[in-house]
């Protein structure tokens, strides 16, 4: 018998009915649909984008690459970062081929890589906007250009595609890109002493280093992190030289440096400021490099940003970004529900950040937030048919308000076909396709099970773990561990924060009482077989916000297990704000096989007011017309499933009688 010192996870096969439906949806509907959109073959309505980011009904993302590769003639269409729609799609394809081999899809992806190779310049540069429209401006307006962001997304896709298919051409393109960036950026004479306005390249280079073990890529990622904010005038100097009125993206010039996380060095930044997606991509890169280098200053930054976001700036669904202005964070406890942003990409980015933090240290809170994002914040971004998407994820929505109030026009109450700025559809696709990578984390001789997604996993030394459950609808989790070599290792199971007061654990059918350490219970495995059964508390919980959050005072959110619920007009007569949950309300759970592809529903005791007449006075005394509450019920569905039926109001936070 030996103690395992450096276990590795080799393979995970998802068996979860809940997640396999989504993963098959990715293969059968999402990827073909997105491919047709990017090839301008789908009948979509980009012009419906409330942000007015699109002016035509087409994506042109593939056409841009073909123009650069001299296959067709034309001008660049879309944003400077339009290429990233293609690259994130390719990454999602890579993950899907691992669990659902598809020769036709692989041929499409291989030909796409051939096209990308033809579009890449000899020195490794590839960003179609600049190659077509402004070759003289390469790397000269980094505040807006997204060049490194764009190439970073390709590098991520290439790493994934090579790992699944072994395609050397895909990886060589990524190497050439990274080498091009390395040749152009740094503090050496003749190089650019700057960084991209949109963090992403840092995490991409870290992934490339993990695959290739070429230290220069990690060093380059480290440079970008350390250099950010060192020279607050860097962007201004570039703009002055490039031409003040020569913007690449209208309106971006006037955002403060904090929007780009560049107002000061990252080690000095105390709070999460600016564009939410930029923040969490940056945090993921910081966590990556901190883990790979052991830099304690960077780790301190990670924890500081994590605590600020999770404890003061995150919605109950895991969404982040409080304002449509800059898609940004605002200030602590400012969490409006009907004007918020909560971009899908930001929730996807939080899963990346949480995963990296779990790889640094076994803290259950990281797993809690990862779970919250997977089942709520991120999943809300895609419809049940896989062909409609939310860019913005509000916690309160009203079609009348979205149409009538310009300050709420960004709040869609039906998912859109596509967006002019289409970062979210392919981002949520690559997350769902790779969800098998978010279940376990290995620390030396310890295997952590932090997500309850049914699977069959294989580790080194012929160790295998079968996790069985009907999560998120049922809290009974079963593990069967096979350890034929009778190796010694620890198995840690996350006890979710929503169940830590009440759970039951059995090992080989015997009750055990183990201490919870930082959110995990640990079981020592040394026999050839072991069965572990965990029963989590799936009672319905009424959640209140910290009373510093003025928007939620006197309200509650309803949660069962990891799922946050909401009320929709389809199940409750509008307006929803006339309801309140009773003081001693009873809540009843029911699983409905036939509703929204199968969901758990909740009915809760409530009271409702009759809506005042349009002829009534706008204001009157309470004594003249007191509120007259009537017995009622509120029907609730999971937040991720809202907006899949008829148009109507929705609310997560509900009035509560106290």
TrEMBL record:
It holds the Pfam family Glyco_hydro127C. Keywords: Glycosidase, Hydrolase. Residues 540-655 form the Non-reducing end beta-L-arabinofuranosidase-like GH127 C-terminal domain. It is an enzyme of class 3 (hydrolase). Residues 446-538 form the Non-reducing end beta-L-arabinofuranosidase-like GH127 middle domain. Residues 11-436 form the Non-reducing end beta-L-arabinofuranosidase-like GH127 catalytic domain. Its EC number is 3.2.1.185. One of its GO terms (biological process) is carbohydrate metabolic process. GO terms for molecular function: beta-L-arabinofuranosidase activity. This is Non-reducing end beta-L-arabinofuranosidase. The gene is hypBA1.
């Amino acid at each position: 018998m030996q103690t395992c010192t450096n276990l590795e996870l080799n393979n995970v096969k998802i068996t979860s009915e809940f997640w396999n439906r989504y993963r098959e949806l990715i293969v059968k509907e999402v990827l073909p649909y997105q491919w047709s959109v990017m090839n301008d073959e789908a009948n979509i309505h980009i012009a419906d984008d409330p942000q007015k980011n699109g002016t035509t009904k087409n994506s042109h993302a593939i056409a841009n690459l073909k123009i650069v590769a001299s296959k067709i003639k034309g001008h660049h269409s879309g944003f400077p970062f339009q290429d990233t729609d293609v690259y994130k799609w390719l990454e999602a394809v890579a993950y899907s081929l691992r669990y659902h081999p598809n020769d036709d899809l692989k041929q499409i992806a291989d030909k796409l890589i051939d096209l990308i190779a033809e579009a890449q310049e000899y020195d490794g540069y590839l960003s179609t906007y600049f190659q077509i429209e402004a070759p003289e401006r390469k790397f000269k307006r980094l505040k807006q250009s997204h060049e490194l962001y764009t190439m970073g997304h390709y590098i991520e896709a290439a790493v994934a595609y090579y790992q699944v298919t072994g395609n050397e051409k895909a990886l060589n393109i990524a190497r050439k890109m990274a080498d091009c960036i390395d040749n152009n950026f740094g503090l050496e004479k003749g190089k650019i002493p700057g960084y991209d306005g949109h963090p992403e390249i840092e995490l991409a280079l870290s992934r490339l280093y993990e695959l290739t073990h070429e230290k220069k890529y990690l060093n380059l990622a480290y440079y970008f992190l350390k250099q950010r904010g060192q020279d607050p005038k860097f962007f201004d100097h570039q703009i002055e030289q490039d031409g003040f009125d020569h913007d690449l993206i209208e309106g971006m010039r006037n955002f403060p440096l904090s929007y780009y996380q560049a107002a000061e060095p990252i080690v000095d930044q105390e709070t999460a400021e600016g564009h939410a997606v930029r923040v969490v991509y940056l945090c993921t890169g910081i966590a990556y490099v901190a883990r790979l280098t052991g830099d304690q200053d960077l780790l301190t930054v990670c924890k500081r940003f994590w605590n600020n976001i999770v404890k003061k700036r995150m919605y109950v669904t895991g969404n982040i970004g409080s304002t449509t202005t800059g898609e940004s964070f605002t200030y602590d406890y400012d969490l409006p529900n009907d004007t918020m942003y909560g971009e899908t990409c930001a929730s996807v980015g939080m899963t990346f950040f949480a995963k990296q933090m779990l790889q640094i240290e076994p803290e259950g809170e990281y797993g809690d937030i990862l779970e919250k994002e997977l089942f709520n914040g991120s999943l809300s971004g895609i419809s049940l048919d896989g062909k409609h998407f939310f860019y913005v994820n509000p916690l309160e929505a009203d079609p009348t308000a979205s149409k009538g109030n310009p300050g709420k026009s960004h709040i869609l109450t039906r998912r859109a076909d596509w967006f002019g700025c289409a970062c979210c559809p392919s981002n949520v696709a690559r997350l769902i396709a790779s969800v098998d990578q978010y279940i376990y984390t290995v620390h030396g001789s310890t295997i952590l099970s932090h997500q309850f997604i049914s699977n069959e996993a294989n580790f080194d030394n012929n160790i295998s773990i079968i996790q069985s459950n009907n999560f998120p609808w049922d809290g009974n989790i079963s593990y069967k561990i096979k350890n034929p070599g009778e190796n010694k290792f620890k198995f840690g199971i996350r006890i979710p924060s929503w169940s830590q007061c009440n759970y039951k654990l059995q090992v080989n059918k015997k009750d055990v009482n183990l201490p919870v350490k930082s959110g995990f219970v640990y079981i020592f495995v040394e026999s050839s077989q072991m069965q572990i059964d965990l029963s989590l508390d799936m009672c319905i919980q009424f959640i209140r916000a910290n009373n510093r959050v003025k928007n939620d005072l006197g309200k509650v959110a309803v949660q069962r297990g990891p799922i946050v619920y909401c009320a929709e007009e389809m199940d409750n007569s509008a307006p929803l704000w006339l309801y309140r949950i009773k003081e001693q309300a009873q809540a009843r759970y029911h699983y409905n096989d036939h509703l929204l592809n199968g969901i758990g529903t909740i009915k809760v005791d409530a009271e409702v007011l009759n809506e005042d007449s349009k002829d009534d006075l706008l204001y009157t005394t309470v004594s003249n017309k007191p509120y007259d509450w009537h017995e009622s019920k509120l029907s609730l569905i999971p937040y991720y499933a809202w907006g899949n039926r008829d148009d109507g109001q929705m609310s997560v936070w509900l009035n509560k009688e106290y």
